[in-house]
Design goal:
MetI-like fold; 14 helices
C-alpha cells in the first residue's frame, strides 16, 4: 500500500523574501512613528483637561504631578464668568465669520480667472497673490498701524470712524492675509476640473458669471470646506492683530479673554487651563460639522492623473 508523498513547499526566492521583510519592517516603523506622534499630540490636551479638573488648593499643596483627590468643574464655571467669555465669543464671531466669507469669496473669483480663463497675466497674478502670503506680519505692522489711524470708514462699521480699534479693521487685515493662500489652493483645484465642462457651457451660451457661480464653484465644495475649516481656526486663534490694531479691551476677540484670567503677580494655572479648553470649543465644532468635506479636501488631487 503506497502513501501519497507530501506536497513540496514552494521555495520563496531570496530577493522576494528580503523585499517582504523590508516592507514589513517599514510598516512596523510607520506604525511606531504614528503611535509616538499620537502620544505627543494627545498628551498636552490630556494634561490640560487633567489640570482644569483639579482645584488649585490641591495642586498647590500636593503638586501638579500628584494623584488627584478631588475632581470638579468649578474651574470652568469660574473661567466662564470671570473672563466674560460670552462677550468675547461674540467679538470673535463678528471678526471670524465675515473674514472667512470674504476671503473665500475673493479667492474664488481670483482663482477662477487664473485657472479657467486665458489671459497673459494669469501666472504673474498668481505669483503676486502667493508671494504676498509669505510676508511676515511683523514687517508691516508699523506702516499698517499708521494707515489704520488715517483711513476713515462709515460709523456703521466703526464707532470712531476709523479702521483702527474696530471689528472692520480686523476683518480687512485677516481677509487680506488669507486670500493669497486660498487663491493658491483653489486655483490648483480648479485646474483639475475638466475644461470640457466649461467649453460645453460656453457653447450653450453661458456667460462667465454662470460658469463660475453655477458650474465651477459647486464642484469646488471639498476645497472650500477644507479652506473654511483652516481659515476659521487661523483667524479665530489670531492674537497678534487684535493686540496691535485694537485698543479697547472689550472689542478684542476670545484669545485676549484668557488674559483676564491672569493676575499681575499670580496665575491660577488650573483656571487658565479651563479657560483655554472653553476657548477651543468653537473650532472643534467647526471641524466636526465640516469633517467629511475637510477630509475630502485634504486629498485634493490625490486621485487625479
Amino acid at each position: 500500500m503506497t502513501t501519497a508523498a507530501p506536497p513540496l513547499e514552494r521555495a520563496v526566492p531570496a530577493p522576494v523574501a528580503a523585499r517582504r521583510h523590508k516592507t514589513s519592517a517599514g510598516r512596523v516603523g510607520a506604525h511606531v512613528f504614528l503611535l509616538i506622534a499620537v502620544i505627543l499630540w494627545i498628551t498636552p490636551i490630556a494634561w490640560a483637561i487633567y489640570t482644569s479638573l483639579r482645584p488649585y488648593n490641591e495642586t498647590s499643596k500636593y503638586g501638579y504631578l500628584s494623584w488627584p483627590r478631588h475632581l470638579t468643574f468649578h474651574n470652568f464655571s469660574t473661567a466662564w464668568t470671570q473672563a466674560n467669555m460670552l462677550h468675547y465669543f461674540w467679538n470673535s464671531f463678528m471678526i471670524t465669520v465675515p473674514a472667512v466669507i470674504l476671503a473665500l469669496g475673493f479667492a474664488s473669483c481670483v482663482a477662477f480667472v487664473v485657472s479657467r480663463l486665458n489671459f497673459w497675466f494669469n501666472i504673474p497674478l498668481l505669483i503676486i497673490f502667493t508671494a504676498g502670503n509669505l510676508l511676515p506680519q511683523q514687517v508691516i505692522i508699523t506702516p499698517l498701524y499708521r494707515i489704520y489711524l488715517t483711513v476713515h470708514v462709515p460709523h456703521l462699521l466703526s464707532s470712531n470712524g476709523l479702521l483702527y480699534d474696530s471689528y472692520a479693521g480686523l476683518v480687512v487685515i485677516n481677509t487680506a492675509f488669507q486670500v493669497g493662500f486660498c487663491v493658491f489652493v483653489l486655483s490648483n483645484y480648479m485646474k483639475t476640473i475638466p475644461h470640457e465642462i466649461g467649453e460645453a457651457a460656453l457653447i450653450d451660451g453661458a456667460p462667465v458669471w454662470t460658469r463660475f457661480w453655477k458650474l465651477t464653484l459647486p464642484l469646488c465644495r471639498p476645497a472650500l470646506a477644507a479652506l473654511a475649516t483652516l481659515l476659521t481656526t487661523w483667524i479665530y486663534n489670531d492674537f497678534f492683530w487684535a493686540i496691535a490694531l485694537i485698543s479697547t479691551g472689550n472689542k478684542r476677540p476670545i484669545t485676549s479673554a484668557l488674559a483676564n484670567l491672569q493676575g499681575q503677580y499670580f496665575v491660577n494655572q488650573n483656571l487658565l487651563a479651563a479657560g483655554a479648553l472653553i476657548t477651543a470649543i468653537p473650532t472643534l465644532l467647526v471641524y466636526v460639522i465640516l469633517q467629511r468635506q475637510f477630509i475630502a479636501g485634504l486629498s485634493l488631487g490625490s486621485s487625479k492623473g
